[in-house]
Amino acid sequence: MGAKTHPVPMALFRKNRQNLCTALKANSAVEKGSFVLLEGGKDVSFNDTDVNYLFRQESYFQYLFGVKEPDCFGALNVDSGESILFVPRLPEEYATWMGRLFTLEEFKSMYEVDRVLYVDELPAFFEKAAPKLILTLSGVNSDSGLRSKPASFDGIEKYVVNCDLLHPILAECRVIKTPEEIEVLHYVAMVSSDAHIKVMQFMRPGRTEYEGEAVFLHHAYAVGGCRHTSYTCICGSGTNSAILHYGHAAAPNDKAVRDGDMCLFDMGANYCGYAADITCSFPANGKFTEDQKFIYNAVLDARNAVLKEAREGVSWVDMHRLSCRVMLQRLKEGGMLQGDVDEMLAAGLAGTFQPHGLGHLIGLDVHDVGGYLPGQPERPTEPWLSKLRFARDLKAGMYVTVEPGCYFIDILMDKALADPNLNKFIVKDVFERFRTFGGVRIEDDVLITKTGNVNFASVPRTVEEIEKCMAERT
């Protein structure tokens, strides 16, 4: 990347390849003479035009090879660990438009693989290698419901191919981050945190939501070398801050921020494929009202309770329950709710205020793989737990978001008021006072350790810290 950005060694990807081969050799279904074959991402055009979306590598391929170019394949000899990169054979005129063509030896040196061949040499390679088994990647992403595409080439039908075995093993490898990956994740979280602070100091009534987005994008790229974001920036103010995935094409962060608005800005840079995912909530004018303090501190206390308890061996479902219990208790203490908090939890009242899970795994995908793999706990069936993106016990080396939130969403408020199992807990006049409030989310990127956790998000979090930060306005 840039001269002042974090250097990413190819040893990171080499270690990932080694970890995968070790995991495969430990599986009795993987016989000697097996090869892994993956296909990298492809260039995608704008509909029927000759203009392409800016390429981003397919995440599994990035994990193993760290290759920037599209239309590549990669193979691994499971027994020896030998890595073979296959690159497209490009026409000579390509150099006129896109720059000098690299030689195979240059690709080999650049990506520190054992061999580099052209993609059209795939059939000949496997004919000579005579694999007993080719492992390709096909499995469903539990967040999107979409299936990964298995690699193929002309003549692959001549070999024994298993497209199901690799996916859960490779996904599980991605769950536990290596020290080299952790360094990259820490860097991109640091860049994103600094960019969030710039945004908080820039925003004020009269400016538009997209101006805040622009400040974030500029800092992440100009200072951090992060050309990509990990997802579409969510920059909600006022009632927009209660729209969980605001910022999409039909709601493009285009509202003017008003005095008295609460802002919820959820933005994360991406560096060498690795994601950050941080949310800051703050008052547009730099000073919290009493109502804003009430809701913000309810969410902050829920977040703090989780960070105090999260460590290896702790159930993520229990962390979600803890977060919801603390937030409901604080809402009760502030006069919005009444009754027994455990009964509120059992009735599912928490889902009225927070209709999403506590957080998710994060890595090469912002909602990273590994949530609901074979042999892991299944998705809970209770409505207020069913949105959890994973239900596993935490392990050292997992990297997760902790993102409790409290939102006032018309449709959910109306449903709660109409439900006798829920409305008995609600103090209606106080509840209705917040109908146009919007929402608050506090989201941190957290590395799980054996004895606790390390929060890589470094942004102002308390009311006092936020007000002090915003007083230093640009």
TrEMBL record:
Top-level EC class: hydrolase
Reactions catalysed, as given in the entry: Xaa-L-Pro dipeptide + H2O = an L-alpha-amino acid + L-proline
UniProtKB keywords: Dipeptidase, Hydrolase, Manganese, Metal-binding, Metalloprotease, Protease
Domain Aminopeptidase P N-terminal: 8-145
SMART domains named in the record: AMP_N
Gene3D superfamilies: Creatinase/methionine aminopeptidase superfamily (3.90.230.10), Creatinase/prolidase N-terminal domain (3.40.350.10)
GO molecular function: manganese ion binding; metalloaminopeptidase activity; proline dipeptidase activity
Pfam families associated with the record: AMP_N, Peptidase_M24
UniProt EC number: 3.4.13.9
Top-level taxonomic group: Eukaryota
InterPro entries: Aminopep_P_N, Creatin/AminoP/Spt16_N, Creatinase/aminopeptidase-like, Pept_M24, Peptidase_M24B_aminopep-P_CS, X-Pro_dipept-like
Keyword Lipid biosynthesis: no
SUPFAM superfamilies assigned: Creatinase/aminopeptidase (SSF55920), Creatinase/prolidase N-terminal domain (SSF53092)
Cofactor: Mn(2+)
Protein's GO biological process: proteolysis
Manganese as UniProt keyword: yes
Family: Belongs to the peptidase M24B family. Eukaryotic-type prolidase subfamily.
Subunit structure: Homodimer.
PANTHER family named among the record's database cross-references: PEPTIDASE D, PTHR48480
Protein name as annotated: Xaa-Pro dipeptidase
